Amino acid sequence: MIGTDVSKASKLLTQGELVAIPTETVYGLAANALDATAVAKIYTAKQRPSFNPLIVHVSDTDQVLNYVSDFSLLAQQLAKAFWPGSLTILMPKNDKVPDLVTAGLPNVALRVPNHPLTLQLLKSLAFPLAAPSANVSNTVSPTTAHRVEQNLGNVVHYILDGGKCDVGVESTIVSVIDNQITLLREGGISKEQIEEELGIEISTKAEEKIMAPGQLKKHYATRKPLFLVDDIQDALLRHQAEKVSVLLFESIPTTENYIPYLLSSDYDLSEIANNLFEMMHFADEDDGEFILAARCKNEGIGRAINDRLTRASVR
Ligand code: TXA
Ligand code: MG
C-alpha cells in the first residue's frame, strides 16, 4: 500500500516490519537497524546475498556516536558539510550495530538522508533505519513509489510516498578509517565537491575489493540488453534492429527506427541523473529490442551516471 502517513510507517517499523521510504537519492527498503530479525527480512525481500552490507540512516549527526567507535574529525567535517545529503560515510562500528547489518564487517555505513518525510520519520523513531535501495537485487533502483510497488509490492507492508527522488542516483560512499579517506562508490555528491571541502585529493578504491563487497559488477540491470556506446548518432545509423530504445542526454534529430527517452534536452548532468533510472524502467517496458545509451562526460555526477550505465550493460 502506498501513502504519506508517517505515523503508520513509524508504527510498522517499530513492530519489526519493512517499510519503503523516500530519500533524495532513491527509495530505500527500511527496517529497524538494531533488530537483526527485522534486518533479515530486508535480505529475504530483496533476494540480497547476506555478504552485502546495508547503509544505516540516522536522523542527524548527533546520532552517529551511538553507532560508531570513532567519529573522527575528518568524518565530522564531511558530515557537517554534506548532511543531510547524498554522502554515506563508512566508520568503525560499535557493538550496538548487529553484524547482519554490516555483513560481519567491522565498519558501518551511515548517512542522514535529505528528504522531509523520511527525516520526520527518523525523528519519530527510537532506532535508526537500515535501508538498501528498494529493488530486487541487481535490478534498476526505484526513484518513485510506483516503481517500488511494481518491484517489491508483494513483500513490503507500506510504501511511504515522497514523490520523485530529487537526485536520482544513489549516495556517494566514502570510508573514513584511520584518518584515511577513500571513495568507494560515485554518487549524488561528486568527488570534486568532497575534494574541495577537504582541500585534498582523495583516492578511489576499485570497488570489487573487500571494503564494499556489494559493489558487484553486474548491477542495475534492465531485462533487455543495454549497450553503452561512445557515439549515439553513429550507433543509431548502424544498428540492424527494427526498433531500439535510446537514452538521450540532449535533443538530436529523430529517425523512425528508435524510441527516444530524453533525459535532458541540453546535457544537464543533474537532470540526466534525476531521470536515469525512471527512463531505464520505461525503456525496459517498450517494444524496442534493446537499449542504447551513450557514455556521458566523466566529471562530477557524470561519473556516477557512467558507473550505473556500465554496470547495467554488463552481460
Ligand atoms: O542512496 C543510497 O545510498 C540508497 C538510499 C536508500 O540511502 N541506498 C543504497 O543502498 O544505495 P544499497 O544497499 O543499494 O547500496 C549500498 C552499498 C552496497 O553496495 C554495500 O555493499 C555498501 O553500500 N555498503 C553498505 N554497508 C557497508 C559496509 N559496512 N562496508 C562496506 N560497504 C558497505
Ligand atoms: Mg542498490
Unreliable residue runs: 208-214
SS elements, strand count: 15
Largest beta sheet: strand ordering: 1-8-2-3-7-4-6-5-9-10-11
Whole-number mean pLDDT: 93
Q: Under CATH, the topology of the largest domain is which?
A: DHBP synthase
Indicate how many domains the architecture comprises: 2
Strand-pairing-aware structural class: alpha/beta
What is the makeup of the main sheet? 11 strands, mixed
Q: Give the overall shape.
A: globular
Q: In percent, how helical is the residue content?
A: 25-40%
SSE layout and pairings?
Blueprint (H helix, E strand, L loop, with lengths): L1 E2 L2 H9 L4 E3 L6 E5 L3 H11 L8 E3 L15 H10 L4 E6 L6 H4 L4 E5 L4 H9 L4 E2 L14 H8 L5 E3 L11 E6 L2 E6 L5 H8 L4 E2 L21 E4 L2 H7 L5 E5 L9 E5 L6 H17 L5 E4 L6 H13 L2
Parallel strand pairs: 1-8, 2-8, 4-6, 5-9, 10-11, 12-15, 13-14, 13-15
Antiparallel strand pairs: 2-3, 3-7, 4-7, 5-6, 9-10
Helix pairs in contact: 1-5, 9-10
Bound molecules: threonylcarbamoyladenylate and magnesium ion.
The site of magnesium ion has 3 residues, from loops.
